[in-house]
Amino acid sequence: MKQLPLALFLSALLLPLTAHSLTLEEGLKLVTESGRDVRIAESDADAARASVSLARSPWLPFVDIYGRETWLRYQPEAKTPFGSMPTSQDQFTTYGIRATQLLYDFGKTSSNINAARYSLKSREIETGRQKNVAALDFIICYLDLLESEKLLKVATEEVTRYEAHRKDAESRFKAGVVTKNEVLQSEVTLADSRQRLLTADNLRSLRASKINSLLLKPLNEPVLAEEMKTSPAADLTLDEAWSSAEADSTRLREMDMAISAKEEVVRSAQAEYLPTFYVSGGYENLENKYQVHQDNWSAIAGVNINLFSGGASSSKTGLAKAELRSLKLSREKLLDNIRLEIKSAYLDLKSSAQKIEVARTAITQAEENLRLQQLRYKEGAGTTTEVLDAVTLLTTTESNSWKSLYGFKRAEATFLNAAAKDLVGMYGK
Fold this sequence. Notes:
Elements: H1 4-18, E1 20-22, H2 24-34, H3 36-56, E2 62-71, E3 77-80, E4 83-86, E5 91-104, H4 108-174, H5 180-214, E6 223-225, H6 238-248, H7 250-271, E7 276-287, E8 295-304, H8 312-378, H9 384-418, H10 423-427
Parallel strand pairs: 1-6
Antiparallel strand pairs: 2-5, 3-4, 5-7, 7-8
Helix pairs in contact: 2-4, 3-4, 4-5, 4-7, 4-9, 6-8, 7-8, 8-9
């Protein structure tokens, strides 16, 4: 157990030799170009693109080639004054080709095409949103890793301070100045500190694995995160952030596309009550020796009118209108939620900035307190408990300082994302 801090110190020295060095900019590029969530969104966009082609298909000719063989139980015959006369063979082959072209359907097909196009735009916007979400997730995980490295260093320094005090206590015990109880107290506190050091090391390892997961690398691959070079100044006011989100929020733009698509669906459903005009033509060959013309060409111009469909058309229209109302109400709710998210992130950012200043002041005071308590202990005016409490206080203030710093940076990224800012452009430069 005595060699634990030394082992961790040596592993920290060897880590840069075995781990792959990673910058925030490099990581952002990887997760936004090849991350799983981004690729899923891109696949959804490809599916929406295929839906546009599907919606456009009614404007193109439908061409069928067919063939069939017919067997009749009785040979068809016609009655005449001179007896029955065959009119067809009891077995014959028929084949042909037919093409049908839609001419006009009062906007039903064009509305379906427009709805599919709006859905495609929504999927493309979603792809952009997923890139920002992936960027935010990576930034948070990257900051978590940097924070865990600093906390690991703090835990190592705490063990070192407790070890130094234990040596002082042992020296004073051998000199007969203090009792054995003070040595035992320092040893127990040191053992507890080493446990916290192991916990800090495990936390750092887990957060490194999260980075590897986002980068699609083996989870146990060592990672050496470089300190952030870029820290965008989140100097937006609350009103500016609200305006920015209302203008550029991908979630609002997605909702707008969904509303436009549903409006087209309503128009398409209403068009089912109107006529559909079409033309059709083809060629057919009937291999029957009783037919004067076994092959023939045909041309048809027709109109279909939906008089009654069992209530399906009215139900489709009512359903689409209800969904449209729901989407419009959902947009209003979404806008309020976005404003609340921005305000929460804004307040968190301001609070985090204030915590940094408080923590910095506390560190200076805790360092001076430890120095005085150690001096008093060496002079015989202080106790072991006072020194141990001073070490604990300094460790707590140092940990709080690092947590405040990286908490501020996480709050900054969250606020910028809520305000619909491009995180890749701001952090990936």
